[in-house]
UniProtKB/TrEMBL annotation:
UniProt-recorded name of the protein: DNA-binding GntR family transcriptional regulator
Entries under PANTHER family matching the protein: TRANSCRIPTIONAL REGULATOR, GNTR FAMILY, UXU OPERON TRANSCRIPTIONAL REGULATOR
Biological classification of the source: Bacteria, Pseudomonadati, Pseudomonadota, Alphaproteobacteria, Hyphomicrobiales
Coiled-coil intervals, chain numbering: none
Organism name: Labrys wisconsinensis
Annotated GntR C-terminal domain residues: 82-211
């Protein structure tokens, strides 16, 4: 039956709906939910939710607690350390390869986005919308570097970890008030990429991820 396509599409819709609501904070880390509450949340049938739960458990996004139900994963120190270590392993290698292959036109666009965001940050007139745009620019650079690998196995694993990183970001260290230092760190990465010096790009990426990890662990 799975080969028919519709059950697979339904499972993917359930996954996309759940993760969208999770990142929108409609459900929160540590919260207990029932399968029927997930049905109401996602608008999808119970069968799709029942098939979704094992996948989310395998990805570490929730756990089933006997006698209590389904619990959204906690943001604890262990999760933070593991998620950041995973990022370092992937993104250091990815940025080295990206440095050698990224088109100049793409780099020029990324630089414009970051310089515009930095200018808005330095102006001191930061609205929630501008901070949200800066956050999107932040995530997009990392996603772009990973996507450039054109490796679906890595992309899937990265997307799962990226959900955890966004949850950590929401709970521990939002970009609010930090637009200027984040954009400067990203521009240092772009400087290194544009110079076509892979080791320099790796060092800049490592420093950026280490800074974020230290913030998350310190809060």
């Amino acid at each position: 039956m799975d080969e028919g396509g519709e059950p697979i599409r339904l499972r993917e819709r359930a996954y996309a709906s759940f993760t969208r609501h999770l990142l929108a904070r409609d459900v929160r880390p540590g919260q207990f939910v029932s399968q029927r509450e997930l049905v109401a949340l996602t608008g999808l049938p119970l069968g799709a939710i029942r098939e979704l739960v094992p996948r989310l458990e395998a990805e570490g996004l929730l756990i089933t607690v006997p006698q209590r139900g389904i619990q959204i994963a906690h943001i604890d120190l262990n999760l933070i350390r593991e998620a950041f270590q995973f990022r370092l392993f992937l993104e250091r290698e990815a940025v080295a390869l990206f440095t050698a292959s990224a088109p100049d036109t793409l780099l020029a666009r990324l630089r414009r986005e970051h310089e515009d965001a930095l200018a808005r940050g330095l102006s001191g007139d930061l609205t929630p919308d501008i901070e949200e745009q800066a956050q999107a620019i932040d995530w997009n650079l990392h996603d772009t570097i990973i996507d450039a690998l054109d490796n679906e196995i890595i992309a899937k694993a990265y997307r799962v970890n990226s959900i955890k990183m966004r949850l950590i970001n929401q709970e521990r260290f939002r970009i609010d008030g930090r637009v200027v230092p984040v954009m400067r760190e990203h521009l240092a990465i772009l400087d290194a990429i544009e110079s076509r010096e892979p080791q320099r790009a790796v060092e800049a990426m490592t420093q950026h991820i280490d800074n974020a990890r230290n913030l998350a662990l310190r809060v």
